[in-house]
Amino acid sequence: MGITNVSVLPGCISCRNCESVCPAIFKVDPTSRVINRDYLPHAKEIFKAERLCPVNVIKVETTGNREPESEMAKGEAATLEKKAFLTRDVVELRFRTKGFSFLPGQYVSLSFRDAQGSFRRSYSIVSGDGSGFVLAVKLLSSGRGSKALQKLKVGDLVEYFGGMGHFVLRDSPTHKVFVATGTGLAPMMAMLAATPDSVPQTVIFGARTEGDLFYLERLRKIKNAKVIVTLSQPGAKWKGAAGRVTDHLGIVTPQSEVYVCGNPDMVESVKKALHDAGHDSGLVFAEEFVAQGSTASDAEKSRGTLSFLKRIVLDGEIPGLVIATVQWTFIAFAFAVPFLWGFFPKLRTELWSVSWISVVALMAVRPLADIFPKISLFRALIPLRQWLGILSASVVVTNLGFTAWNSWDSLVSSYLSARGWRVSSRALFARVSEITAVLLLVTSNAWSQRTLRANWKRLQRLSYAYFFSAGIILHWYGQTSALYAMVAIAALWIAAEITKKVRARGASSK
Ligand SMILES: Cc1cc2nc3c(=O)[nH]c(=O)nc-3n(C[C@H](O)[C@H](O)[C@H](O)COP(=O)(O)OP(=O)(O)OC[C@H]3O[C@@H](n4cnc5c(N)ncnc54)[C@H](O)[C@@H]3O)c2cc1C
Ligand code: SF4
Description:
Blueprint lengths: L2 E6 L8 H5 L4 E3 L3 E3 L8 H10 L5 E5 L13 E10 L4 E8 L9 E8 L2 E13 L2 E7 L5 H8 L5 E8 L11 E6 L3 H10 L6 E7 L8 H6 L3 E7 L9 E2 L14 E6 L1 H13 L7 E5 L7 H6 L3 H9 L6 H24 L4 H24 L4 H6 L2 H23 L1 H9 L1 H6 L1 H20 L1 H7 L2 H22 L3 H30 L1
Parallel strand pairs: 11-12, 11-15, 12-13, 13-14, 15-16
Antiparallel strand pairs: 1-4, 2-3, 5-6, 5-10, 6-9, 7-8, 7-10, 8-9
C-alpha cells in the first residue's frame, strides 16, 4: 500500500501534533500544511499524525486497501471505572489505565467503533494521575461520539491516545485568567489544580442556564481564585453574574495570561474582544472544541439524487463497493487481454486504444485533482491510476509476447532498427504508449518507489518528457490525434503547477 496524497482539510486548530510526529511532512504556520510530497520514507509517521489529529482534518490517500488498524499507530487501553452525570447532558467519566501522564490543559483522543466504522473524538483532561484520567463530556443527542459514550458501561475498554496538545499551562507567576463555556471548563480544572496558590487566578465560567453549571463547589474551594459564573439566560432566582463571558473581560490586565476554551464562536469572540482592547495576543492561549464529525441526521438530511451526486463529485464519497468493483473489472480485463488478443485478432486495434486511453487517463487524474481541489472525485480517482497502469501494461506485454512468439527477430528489429520507427508511424505510436506505460508502471507502485527512492520521480518525469516529445514526432507522421491528447495533458500539468504555486503564495500571504 502506497500513499498517493496527503492533505490538510480546513478546520486545523494548530495543535501541532502532526508537526511533532512528522516534521518532514507537516508544518504548522499558522495552520498545518504539507511541505513535502515524498511520503514513502515517512509513511508510518504520516499515519500516526492522521490518527492523532484531534479534529480529523489530515486526509491520507493510499493505493489499495488500508493496512489493518492493528498495523497502524496503536493507542493504549483504558477501562471505564466510573460514570456520573454532572448536569442533564454533561457526564463525568473516570478511566483506569496502566500508567498515564499529561500536562494540565491537554486532551486525550478516544477511539470508538460503530456501524459506520471506527472514529475518534478528543476530550480534555479534567484531572489525571499515573492510574488514569477523568473527562467531562457534553452528550449530544445525535452525536456519534456521544452515542458511543452513552453506551459505554463501567468495566468496558476503550482505546486512547494522549495526553497531547499544546494548550498547556505556562509556568509563570503572572495573573492567569481562565475563560470557559460549558465543558470548556474541563482543561481549566486541570490547569487550576496545577496553578500555585501564590499565583493570582480568575475564572470566568459561562453557561446558558443554572441547570448547565457544574464543578461550582470545586471552583469555590480554589484558593486565591476569583470565580465569575455568568449565565446568558439567567432564571429569576439567579443571584450571580449575567451575560456572556466577553462581558466580564474587564478583569484582564495588560500582563494577564488568558486561557480560553469552549466552542469556536466563543473562543473567537473572546480573542477579538481582547485584541480590540489592545491585549498582547502572545498572552492569549486557546483551545477550540471543533466538531470532528457529522451526525446520522446530517447524513439523512443530505439524501436525494442531487445531494447524492454532490457527495460523489464534490465530497469524493465513492462507496467502497463501487471502487472495489471498478478495480476488479480492470484486473479481470487485464487478465482477459491475452485471450482477446489471441482469439479475436480483429480486436487488437481496440485493445491498443484501451491501452492508450488508460495511459492518458492515468496522466490526467493528478493534475485535475490539483486544479480542482473542491471536486474531490478527482482525488478519489487517484488510487485507480495503478489499475489503469496494469491494464495498459497488460496490452503492452501481450503484444510483446505475441510478437516474440511469432518472430523474435521482428520484435528486436521493431525496437532497435531506426527503419521501424521511420517506416510506420503506427509502430511508433505503439512504442510511445508501450514505453510510457512501462515507465509509469515501474514508478507507480509502492515497492518500486521504495526501491528507487527519490529516483522514481525522475523516472516518471522522464516518461512524461518522452510522451510529449514523441507526440511532436508523431505529428510529423500524421498522427495528430495523439498530439492533441499530449497537448491537453501538457496543458493540464502546466495549469496544475501554476495553480499550486498561486495557492501556496496566497496561503503564505495570509
Ligand atoms: C482538542 C479538543 C478537546 C475537546 N474536549 C472536549 C471536552 O473536554 N468535553 C466535551 O464535551 N467536548 C470536547 N471536545 C468536543 C468533542 O471532541 C466532540 O466534538 C463533541 O463531543 C461532539 O462529538 P460527537 O461525536 O458527539 O458529535 P458529532 O457527531 O461530531 O457532531 C454532532 C453534531 O453536533 C454538532 N456539534 C458538535 N459539537 C457541538 C457542541 N458542543 N454543541 C452543539 N453542537 C455541536 C456538530 O456540528 C454536528 O452537527 C473537544 C474537541 C477538541 C477538538
Ligand atoms: S494535528 Fe490536525 S489540528 Fe493539529 S496541527 Fe495538525 S492538522 Fe492541525
